[in-house]
Automatic annotation (TrEMBL):
CDD domains: ASKHA_ATPase_ROK_BsXylR-like
Domain named HTH marR-type: residues: 15-60
Domain of life per record: Bacteria
Highest classification ranks of the organism: Bacteria, Bacillati, Actinomycetota, Actinomycetes, Pseudonocardiales
Family stated for the protein in its record: Belongs to the ROK (NagC/XylR) family.
InterPro entries: ATPase_NBD, HTH_MarR-typ, ROK, WH-like_DNA-bd_sf, WH_DNA-bd_sf
Pfam families, A to Z: MarR_2, ROK
GO molecular function, one term: DNA-binding transcription factor activity
Protein name: Transcriptional regulator, ROK family
């Protein structure tokens, strides 16, 4: 049955309301926040003072105003407040970063290494060590976000399947919480979805797009109306496992001709006859015909998969992330040509193709951002814990 809201519930709601107003319009005064939220000046002042004490908010200089009266002070999210700790478990690397409340990256680390040959327990041991190193930084940690290349069930946070790692049914959140004894939230998400969220907040800023993360695996994050579309269980965006050639090579997922087996980073490098991505880029800049043909072939298969997504969801923009962002100068024209042929609405609504400016950092930053957004959406529990 419905019950009246308690005093604590009302304060919790109003605290989120006030912090959201400050985040949306940095530099606002208490009076401006009160006018924007409809709360009394006294209520706003009390909540702001609590958040200043918890280092969520910081005061700036007094605002200039005409005529007599007290000048209000500008309010901002505090860069010295709690940070989000982002972790990415990649197929060939581990990455971590610390991001403050304003979205600025304080510091980051990258550790190359092939995780396909390691058991989940061994990789998670290395992840725990990387987190311990980040925790030595002189900042408060408000939460940990973990990006993984596979199906993460939104209701449980369990990694159900990561074909390129060979992982099944791994409770990443539970394992890390147990190993580290963390008293802050640990949030786990698909790396492509988290990269798309970071692109939404700090990249292209478009309200509707598909962000394609091209690495060894290929994932897509779908943003509609400024919100991430995760599907019913959180499993949307697995564009790398769309079969674009039913007679193509076997994929670790069990199917044939999946996009990532034809247009993934490993396949492009192999077809170009080079050793790695940096060597591929050098060859492309030198107009090497084999390297250029390999990228053009990948663009064709990418266009086949993306045209299906665009036709289904009427998406106006494709953002190329990860390795694709670096390959964009050579991918763009053949990809646009394929989309032009296959997207039925192209004559009236041509698809725009952009290179992400965040490139390979987007998933790690997006993971850290999940912890930040959780605090911004509901700051009162954090404030209460700090001030207790």
């Amino acid at each position: 049955m419905s019950r009246p809201a308690s005093q604590h519930t009302v304060r919790r709601h109003n605290c989120a309301l006030v912090l959201d107003a400050i985040a949306a319009a940095p530099g606002s005064s208490r009076a401006t926040v009160a006018a924007r939220t409809g709360l009394t000046k006294a209520t706003v002042s009390s909540l702001v003072d609590r958040m200043i004490g918890a280092r969520l908010v910081v005061e700036g200089e007094a605002q200039s105003r005409p005529g007599p009266g007290r000048r209000g002070t500008a309010l901002h999210l505090s860069p010295a407040g709690p940070h989000g700790l982002g972790v990415e478990i990649g197929v060939d690397h581990l990455a971590t970063c610390l991001v403050d409340l304003t979205g600025r990256v304080r510091t980051s680390w990258l550790r190359p290494g092939d995780n396909r040959a390691s058991r989940p327990s061994r990789v998670l041991t290395r992840v725990a060590a990387a987190i311990r190193l980040a925790l030595k930084e002189d900042v408060a940690i408000g939460g940990v976000g973990v990006a993984v290349p596979g199906l993460v069930e939104s209701a449980t946070g369990i990694l159900r399947l990561a074909p390129n790692l060979g992982w099944r049914e791994v409770d990443v959140r539970g394992e890390l919480t147990r190993r580290l004894g963390l008293d802050v939230p640990v949030l786990v998400g698909n790396e492509a979805n988290l990269a798309a969220l970071d692109e939404l907040r700090h990249g292209c800023g478009a309200p509707d797009f598909v962000h394609v993360s091209g690495e060894i695996g290929i994932g897509a994050g779908i943003v509609l109306n400024g919100e991430l579309f995760e599907g019913v269980s959180g499993f949307s965006g697995e564009i790398g496992h769309l079969s674009v050639d039913p007679r193509g090579p076997r994929c670790p997922c069990g199917s044939r001709g999946c996009l990532e087996r034809l247009a993934g980073q490993d396949e492009i490098v192999r077809a170009a006859g080079v050793e790695d991505l940096p060597t591929l880029l050098t060859a492309l800049k030198a107009n090497d015909r084999t390297a250029t043909a390999a990228v053009h072939d990948a663009a064709k298969w990418l266009g086949v998969a993306l045209s299906g997504a665009v036709n289904l969801l009427d998406l106006p923009t494709v953002v190329l992330g990860g390795a694709y962002a670096r390959l964009e100068p050579w991918l763009r024209e053949p990809l646009l040509a394929e989309l032009g042929r296959r997207v039925v609405s192209a004559a009236w609504s041509p698809v725009h193709v952009l290179a992400s400016t965040l490139a390979s950092d987007a998933a790690t930053r997006g993971a850290a951002g999940t912890a930040i957004r959780a605090i911004l959406a509901d700051p009162d529990p954090y404030v209460t814990a700090v001030l207790a």
